[in-house]
Amino acid sequence: xxxxxxxxxxxxxxxxxxxxxxxxxxxxxxxxxxxxxxxxxxxxxxxxxxxxxxxxxxxxxxxxxxxxxxxxxxxxxxxxxxxxxxxxxxxxxxxxxxxxxxxxxxxxxxxxxxxxxxxxxxxxxxxxxxxxxxxxxxxxxxxxxxxxxxxxxxxxxxxxxxxxxxxxxxxxxxxxxxxxxxxxxxxxxxxxxxxxxxxxxxxxxxxxxxxxxxxxxxxxxxxxxxxxxxxxxxxxxxxxxxxxxxxxxxxxxxxxxxxxxxxxxxxxxxxxxxxxxxxxxxxxxxxxxxxxxxxxxxxxxxxxxxxxxxxxxxxxxxxxxxxxxxxxxxxxxxxxxxxxxxxxxxxxxxxxxxxxxx
Length: 358
Hints:
By secondary structure, this protein is α+β, with helices and mostly antiparallel strands. It folds into 2 domains: 147 residues, CATH 3.30.1330.10; 192 residues, Phosphoribosyl-aminoimidazole Synthetase, Chain A, domain 2 (Alpha-Beta Complex), CATH 3.90.650. 38% of the residues lie in helices and 23% in strands. The strands form 3 sheets. Strands 8-10-7-11-9-12-13 form a 7-stranded mixed β-sheet. A 4-stranded mixed β-sheet has the order 3-6-4-5. Helix 3 packs parallel to helix 8. The longest helix has 18 residues. It starts with a helix and ends in an 11-residue tail after the last strand. Its EC number is 2.7.4.16.
């Protein structure tokens, strides 16, 4: 099968005409470029929001931790989350795959299975891309185009003293899942861990969080519509790193409260079994793809109630203060069960993943 036959095999008939039409696709995969119509604004003009993310084999994943379809899902989900972090709605995706010989047509087909599953879940039209050979490792680069109401994109730089700090889901689960997968693969001679084995080990939710993260698109759109969110960031590199990004961009200090951080029950059980403080995964793990943000304190409880009514989680985890840019945390006193705020206030360092650390 030649290159163009392979592309047809991987992409033809994957998405419904209804989805493509709904996203304004005039011409999709099969020509030199795609053609889409700009969607009409529901409440005025829209602006385009664009994001690109790359996943590299052995850097972001390996065959012991993720199946081919998981790689495809996650490659798109990372970009969908970036659009959500601007308060936007994802619409179109371009997919570039560079594959070595070990990734034959059947494996790439399974990768596209995951890509299209994620695309259909979030209503994203895959409209084109590129395929090339690679000398050694698989590289998947995805560009997602979304829209947001003109002038309403939510940046990292808008946090104000007095704002509430929130997250749209538990954090640290993906890192805990990766920890389990790497440990299990090491014991199994580098073999892939099937979902059934993860379920038997009580880590299914953690593995799912790592392999198939769920970006908070609906929550982002609901929060953006309220007009009270002042900053937003997605947790791709760890809670501490993303909090620092908001603090730096906004010139404020974020105060997090350990007692209010959402801790997954399965993560707590697994961490306890390994003698690990789950806070390590929560602050420095990354790849949860939930949202961290700030909003007017006067609307925080009402916003949380609205999301909960829609079946979406939201947790209030701290507040914004004036002062030099940084992040602090009020730590729990695990022995007495009490918190002494002046004594237990500790600075939080950037602990997230960084590709270019020395």
